[in-house]
Amino acid sequence: MRPGRRRFLGLGVTAAAIALRPLPSFAQRAAPRVVVVGGGFGGASCARALRQADPRIAVTLVEASATFTACPFSNSVISGLRELPAQQFTYERVAADGITLVRGTATAVDPQARTVTLGDGARLPYDRLVLAPGIDIRWGALPGYDEAAAARLPHAWRAGEQTLLLRRQLEAMPDGGLVVISAPANPFRCPPGPYERASLIAHYLKTRKPRSKVLVLDAKDAFSKQRLFQRAWAELYPGLLEWVPLSKGGSVTSVDAATRTLVTDFGRHRADVANVIPPQQAGRIAAAAGVADRSGWCPIDPVTFESTLQAGIHVIGDAAIGGAMPKSAFAANSQAKTCAAAVARLLAGAAPSAPKLINTCYSLVAPDYGISVAGVYHPAGGQVAEVAGSGGVSPAEAPRTARATEAGLAEAWFRTITGEVFG
Amino acid sequence: MVKVVAAAIGCWAIAAAVTASAEPPAGAASCTGCHPASTRVTSPVVRLSGLERDAIVKALQEFRAGHRAATVMDRIAKGFTDDEIQAIAAWYAAQR
User: Fold this and answer.
1) Domains of chain B
2) E strands of A12-156, at which residues?
3) N or C, which end of chain A has less CB nearby within 10 Å?
């Protein structure tokens, strides 16, 4: 560069600095930018918590849908106990917090340039990025199960049209039919979810089509709240609900959509309604950003939820490897607030403090029969670990009034968490 | 220019540190998964903001010891130390 040009540039910079002298406008320009990808229980909550932690942070929330459809309680929609609009939420209140909403899909991340690229080619610069993309189905992981097959054998593991499809199939099924649910190996979204679904479908059959049956083919030998579920099944749905564990031939190895047949090493099960809950992985932006490892999920620092693979990118919710924390809406919400506090501190040049996180998950075995699991977590040994002596499930012995109380608390929890995140 | 930037960053960091002092202590932010913070939410689960500090401490200690009827709070309170309980109680008591 020739001296003359350098001097010109130097003058230009000085002039710019002077022009910026009124401090408020400078502060505005210096406001750190955080982009949050994904507007679910994790992302929307994190965006709002960031604004609350420090209103000077410019927060952009990238979400493809105008409406969020919640998974918790979607099993009640499937079994006819609830309508889908009760699961749906919009982002007006989120935007009213001063968050910039961008309708679009994040397709790429440049961790060096610190930009997110959207489907339309637009680029959003960030100082820190939070990815809360939830799950994607691992199409192809289960032979025979692709997107076309899902139109006949719904997964209903992302709520919305798939939820309604499974419900319609159950409603159309004649009495005496066989419903088969295939449950995946760990880890997957909502560990008790397949068993709540089996329960509420059994409830629907018991009340509407009592000669029918639900069969759960499981790729595992153990599951969340297992003793509580099995005890309740024996009491509420004897002969109506059968669980086949891995060791008894439960693992589904392929499906045939045309004949609604689920194949295991031990035999073939031809279903009237088949719900295939397939293997999953972090939402696809995670792999595109280079924050997913070979497992398909995202390793994180347990204090800040910053990716251990890419600096400046945090991952929360179902996509993250949350250690002892399950992939639940409550956990995503707890992680979102923890991550927001850490990001605010990091942007301010301060050290993040060690968090404590909580999870509580309710499951309905029947409309008036609720059970729960709860846990408290902290960073230990580089992981999110359960605090020794904390947590656990509902008591094995409890009067039906206690189960009814927990069913009521489950609904209250849903109202509260959706009110906090979207209201 | 460098000085201006440094000064501005300095101001920002100091202001942020002041904001940070109002940060919820470890664990407190997760309570609103069930205990509503927003006044727009109606729930049978008690709002914690503005409760007496001693009442929150007493409740958590009794939940932890198994001396108070509970659904999930007995299991959750067992994950918190006395110091953490004190900090959470003080923080919620100071909220509107």
Assistant:
1) 25-94 (1.10.760.10)
2) 33-37, 58-63, 67-69, 88-90, 100-103, 106-110, 115-118, 123-125, 128-131, 135-137
3) N
**Two structure tokens written together for A37:** 């990808």
Task: Establish how many alpha carbons lie within 13 A of residue A202's alpha carbon, considering only the half-sphere containing its beta carbon.
Answer: 28
- A residues 26-45 closer than 8 Å to B (CB): 26-27, 30
Alpha helices in A270-361 (DSSP H): 285-288, 329-347
CA distances from A72 to A9, A230, B95 (A): 57, 21, 29
| Separation between Cα atoms, residue A185 and residue A187, nearest integer Å | 6
Burial class for A326, CB neighbours closer than 10 Å (0-12, 13-18, 19+): buried
Indicate the residue of A14, A376, A420 with minimum beta-carbon distance to B80: A376
Judge whether B40 is closer than 8 Å to chain A, CB to CB: yes
Alpha-carbon gap, residue A268 to A231, rounded angstroms: 28
Q: What is the reported pTM?
A: 0.90
**Cα angle, residue A91 at apex, residues A73 and A108 outer, rounded to 5°:** 95
3-state SS, residue B64:
helix
* Prediction ipTM score: 0.89
Q: Is A67 helix (H, G, I), strand (E, B) or coil?
A: strand
Residue pLDDT, tens place only, A206-252? 999 999 999 999 999 999 999 999 999 999 999 999 999 999 999 99
Q: What is the pLDDT of residues A196-214, one digit of tens each?
A: 999 999 999 999 999 999 9
Domain ranges of chain A: 147-280
In single-letter form, the type of residue at position A101 comes to L
CATH architecture for the domain at A147-280? 3-Layer(bba) Sandwich (3.50)
A 330-359 residues inside an 8 A Cβ radius of B: 330, 333-334, 337-338, 341, 344-345, 347-350, 353-358
The β-bridge relationship of strands A273-276 and A213-218 is unpaired
DSSP states of A214-228 as a string? EEEEES-S--TTHHH
CA distance to partner chain B, nearest, from residue A358 (Å): 6
Which residues of chain A neighbour B75 with C-beta distances below 8 Å? 374-375, 390-392
Question: Prior bond to A187 cis, omega within 30?
Answer: yes
